[in-house]
Design brief:
five-stranded antiparallel beta sheet, elongated, 2 domains, 0% helix, 145 residues, six-stranded antiparallel beta sheet, mainly beta
């Protein structure tokens, strides 16, 4: 199963498995088991369970990111933004290369790509898998510095 990351309304970053039930978004620590009531049309909605005994964490949809399945040149997981409810999430990592060029990792057109940030917009999207050994994730605490 694909891993996801999100931020709770209280600011806690959580990793696990993503489930959307009605208009709520959750990250579950262990693979989910989902069951639904037979009378869904009468107001009953999905029940989320998992084998870990931990409760699902409700997360902000704008904070969601999907693990791309590969790590950066320093061995750090790379997370990419993806479309949630018709809007691109903002949870994807920023990355930089040895020349100081930066970009944001997003899922677009069926693949994870690096979208270069200005002024390096001459080739706005490049598949991430070939770039991985030249790029490193910018830690959140260093993004504005």
């Amino acid at each position: 199963m694909i891993k996801f990351r999100g931020t709770t309304p209280e600011g806690k970053v959580v990793e696990g498995y993503y489930v959307k039930v009605t208009d709520k978004h959750f990250i579950i620590p262990a693979p989910p088991k989902i069951s639904f009531c037979a009378n869904y049309g009468e107001g009953c909605f999905g029940v989320i369970e998992n084998d870990s005994g931990e409760y699902p964490n409700e997360v902000l949809p704008s904070s969601l990111a999907m693990y791309v399945g590969i790590d950066d040149k320093n061995g750090k997981k790379i997370w990419g933004s993806f479309e949630v409810d018709g809007v691109m999430s903002e949870g994807g990592d920023r990355a930089k290369n040895e020349r100081g060029e930066t970009g944001i990792v997003v899922f677009s057109q069926g693949a994870f790509v690096l979208v270069y940030e200005p002024p390096h917009n001459w080739d706005p999207m490049e598949p991430i898998d070939g770039l991985i050994k030249r790029w490193e994730v910018i830690p959140k605490e260093q993004e504005n510095g």
